[in-house]
Amino acid sequence: MAVGAAALLAVILLVLHFRDLQSPSAQLAMKAKRVELVEQMRLAVALASEAEKSAVMAITDEDSQAYADQARAATATVEQRRVELEQLLQSGGTKGENAYLAQFSGAFAELKRIDKDLLDLAVRNTNLKAYSLAFGPAAGILNEMDAALARVVVKDGNSATANNLRVMQLADGARIAALHLLTLIPPHIAEESDQKMDEMEALMAKDDQVIRKDLEGLAALSSLAGNSDLEVATVRYARFTELKKQILKLSRENTNVRSLTISLSEKRKIMMVCQDALAGLEQAIQEEPIVGLSNRTLAYPR
Q1: Do 159 and 197 lie in a common domain?
Q2: pLDDT tens digit string along 257-282?
Q3: Whose CB has fewer CB within 10 Å in the chain, the N or C terminal residue?
């Protein structure tokens, strides 16, 4: 009898449990929970996107890293809520709701892949570092070289002798070529195409040949033997050449340009797919009827 009574009690409790789950209030609470999770996912996706764009546009490594960390944290929140919602829909979701969640999950997996590549690029800031070298030390050193060559011409005298004309010709040739070379560096840093960068570097190589040839020509003139300004110009150009190699290497990595391109193309497209799937999912949950109640739409602040 005791065993029979226990079994009967278990059946009664089970019936009451399922009846409670099917009650309008329980259905409404479950509906509200699912809508809330979707709203949290939509907000976290938007926050992750905003932080990602800030990481791409930041001008220091520290700021880029901070925003990248924020983007990753928001993405982790999306994944947590997605798993929670998936578990709820497995036990009580409609076919349409599960289809929308599956669509979002696939798009979100692609979004996470894109974000990993994008944020890894953004925090390196190679283009910004190249600009900093180009407009700072590199430009300063070429200015010193230019000033030194100008002094070489002045010190050699203003008489129109063949030697003086040769000095002016060689010095001015080196100065003009150096200035032209310097003007090619910023567009190289901004360029996305490897082919166009190759073309710019070919022009730089021609300028480099002119500069070296003219400096060697000046050094071969007996009137400039031991000229300190010519030595300064030669040393400064050697230093500029070292900096130019660093700048072009950073420019070739192109992390800022590449991350911005990804953000404005691939990332933007997959973001639209994710948001559309979440919007469809939320609408499907909102439209799900509750037995015993007239249709009710739940509203949550965004």
Answers
A1: yes
A2: 999 999 999 999 999 999 999 999 99
A3: N
